[in-house]
Write a structure and sequence with these properties.
Layout (H helix, E strand, L loop, with lengths): L7 E4 L3 E5 L9 H5 L19 H9 L6 E5 L24 E5 L4 E4 L23 E4 L4 E5 L20
Antiparallel strand pairs: 1-2, 2-3, 4-7, 5-6
């Protein structure tokens, strides 16, 4: 079985949730947003009957990796779009953050500076026009992650913060 293309389904009468484990970067936005629904230590780990279809759709729309998606049943999906003005990233800090990267693990680096889980994305970029930088670590190593959000070598620090006012 090809785990990269595996899709699991979780259904209620109003919504079907699709989860692609191979795309999941374990940012835990789902668990933090709806802990009564997403319970990683239980089987099944997704319990969609614990929230409304609208609550689930809103949370899934914030999934930074796209590993979660959904279909609403018996109604058209209404998408409220706001004027999408490209915002500028906010500096989360003025020096890099050192992290330990694990070989083969997927990461989603916060490019907008709004995440409360720096340097990682928590979905706070929604509506900004800025998307996280998703990457897979090629080796176990310490890395300096850009926190000023201006590095030409993003997600890694290139020293740009030293020249910012």
């Amino acid at each position: 079985m090809d785990k990269k293309n595996l899709t699991k389904k979780y259904e209620t009468g109003e919504i079907t949730i699709f989860w692609q484990p191979g795309k999941c970067i374990h940012a835990a936005v789902c668990v933090k947003t709806l802990p009564r629904v997403y319970r990683p230590d239980e089987k099944p780990w997704i319990n969609p009957e614990q929230a409304t279809a609208d609550e689930l759709a809103g949370q899934i729309d914030a999934c930074p990796s796209g590993a979660l998606s959904y279909e609403l049943k018996n109604r058209e999906r209404i998408i409220h779009q706001t004027e999408n003005k490209m915002e500028k990233p906010k500096a989360a800090a003025h020096s890099p953050m050192m992290v330990e990267l694990e070989e083969g693990k997927n990461y989603a680096w916060c490019a907008c500076g709004r995440s409360s889980n720096q340097p990682w994305c928590d979905g706070s970029h929604k509506g900004t026009g800025i998307t996280p930088t998703v990457f897979k670590a090629t080796e176990n190593k310490k890395a300096a992650m850009c926190m000023c959000k201006q590095s030409a070598g993003a997600p890694f620090c290139d020293g740009t913060h030293a020249g910012l006012g």
